[in-house]
Amino acid sequence: MKWLLTCGGVGLLTSALLDPVIYATLEKPIPWWRDLLMGAAGIVCVYLLVKYRRDL
Predict the structure, then answer these.
(1) Could you list the residue range(s) of the whole structural domain that residue 5 is in?
(2) Which residue, 12, 27, 35, 48, has fewest beta-carbon neighbours within 10 Å?
């Protein structure tokens, strides 16, 4: 579970930050709702890792 939350948090936050950069270089409109959802999901994963760090 710890591995899943770690990979989820890192992957989602990285994707949320790099996705607008990639879309901007391709000159396409940026889907902000998707980036916000990925960022929120990444923050939730990191929050759960910190909150339950002794139980995992």
Answers:
(1) 1-52
(2) 27
Overall pTM surpassing 0.85 (yes/no): yes
Side-chain half-sphere exposure of 43, counting CA atoms within 13 A: 8
- Provide the domain count of the chain: 1
Q: How far apart are CA 56 and CA 3, in angstroms?
A: 10
Q: Compute CA distances 49 → 11, 21, 22, 37, 41, whole Å.
A: 14, 28, 29, 18, 12
Tens-place pLDDT, residues 18-50: 999 999 999 999 999 999 999 999 999 999 999
Distance, in Å, from the CA atom of 19 to the CA atom of 22, rounded to the nearest integer, reads: 5
